[in-house]
Amino acid sequence: MKIDILLGLQWGDEGKGKIVDALTAKYDIITRFQGGPNAGHTLEFDGAKHVLHLIPSGIFHEGKINIIGNGVVLDPVVFRKEVESLGLPLPVIRERLLISVKTHLIMPTHRLLDAASEASKGDSKIGSTLRGIGPAYTDKIARSGLRIGDITSSDFMSMYRKRTTDHIRLLNSYNYSFSLEEIEKEWFDCIEYLKQFSTVNCEYEIDTALRNEKSILAEGAQGTMLDVDFGTYPFVTSSNTVAAGACTGLGVAPSKTGEVFGIIKAYCTRVGSGPFPTELHDATGQLMRDRGNEYGSTTGRPRRCGWIDLPALKYAVMINGVTQLFIMKADVLSGFDEIKVCTSYKVRGEAKAELPYCLDEIEEPLYVTLPGWKEDITKCRSWSELPQAMVEYIGFIEKETGVAVTIISVGPDRSQTIFR
Ligand code: GDP
Ligand code: IMO
Ligand code: MG
């Protein structure tokens, strides 16, 4: 067996949580391989809505195993709150959830450092979710992070103090005022809570599962344009959100990866700072925000909205080796007279179909215009029920990217999913 990878091809919030939940029935194991509580993955079923930050989106399904991989950064405080908010009995969650011993911990000082660093940047701030992601990954790469496997060590407290001392020095250099006592106490309480969950060597766990013919889905967080190497640097997150990240974030060889499912919204959104070539600052953008309820699942911030961006999408398809495309939130575009698709960018007066080094070099996006559709599609459950103009829009995306669209999502509920 091979491990399938599902990831966002835009700037995050494409609807990964919804579709992972809808696909979980087909898999034995669901894993997260990067990111941390900056993610907010929304699932809706049986009239209830759940937002997951750290726990893989397969957690609500009986008999499925969910693994938090080594590539994730885990905040024990967020973790505890999330476990307690699931509405599932604790023994059930403990049975369904495994955590890699190599997963790095987000410390209270990481959260403070995130805030201090953003405050120091003024107008050029990243727009971070302030969950401590950047500082935790910084420590990981600097070889000074704390991992889940350390929490049972008799040295854990001294390791913690050593890191914190360094962090405090840095916080003082930012002239950042803070008080640690209370958040530190809460953090240690949550470390104790964490100890009741099973930890594993994720790489062995997955290897054994694959040998035993188990099917595995890796659930990406954020999106390709937020990747630390290939996104709109420096306005990115601090992990590799691309398909290759699943290999390092779980300990899986590239030869053992299978399908790569790329998820896109039928339009485009971004939350936080940084370039967004097709962003709309007008009433059309506001209409997308209103109809799509485009407010961040983690921070509640309004998401910036715009038309679909094919040069960025083709880039994401290339980097990830996408084998199937899923189009989410197609229902949000119902009622628009026309749909615009950015097919190239004007850079120094010339049309370019490739992403320039710096997206700020883009003078304007160049669009083709396709007819819109008026029909409400939220009740459609088969491909043949979709309006002709929408089928043409999908066909245009398929032709341009060279990848087949195999799922269309027509609403936030698990049932509002059309498999082709
Ligand atoms: P993720 O981070 O990729 O999991 O996406 P988020 O959960 O942050 O944001 C997607 C939002 O769109 C959530 O509020 C979902 O409930 C919602 N959603 C997902 N699919 C659809 C869809 O097809 N139509 C509509 N209208 N909403 C959707
Ligand atoms: P999901 O998994 C959308 C954005 C932040 C900010 C930048 C860096 O729900 O799609 P960070 O907290 O990582 O330091 O923030 O990345 N960002 C996301 N945007 N969806 C996400 O996750 C995001 N996670 C981080 O807004 O611009
Ligand atoms: Mg989200």
Q: Could you explain the architecture of this structure?
A:
The longest helix has 18 residues, at 156-173. This protein has 420 residues and is an alpha/beta fold. The protein is 31% helix and 22% strand. The strands form 5 sheets. A 10-stranded mixed beta sheet has the order 9-7-5-2-10-1-11-15-19-20, sandwiched between helices. Strands 14, 16, 17 and 18 form a 4-stranded mixed beta sheet that branches. α2 packs across α7. The chain has helices at 16-23, 76-85, 90-96, 108-121, 133-141, 156-173, 181-194, 202-211, 243-250, 283-291, 310-320, 388-401; strands at 3-8, 29-32, 41-45, 48-52, 65-68, 73-74, 97-100, 104-105, 198-200, 216-219, 257-265, 268-270, 304-306, 308-309, 324-328, 338-347, 350-352, 362-371, 405-409, 417-419. Bound molecules: guanosine-5'-diphosphate, 6-O-phosphoryl inosine monophosphate and magnesium ion (MG). The site of 6-O-phosphoryl inosine monophosphate has 24 residues, from α5. 6-O-phosphoryl inosine monophosphate binds at residues 8, 11-13, 35, 38-41, 126-129, 131, 133-134, 221-223, 226, 237, 271-272, 297.
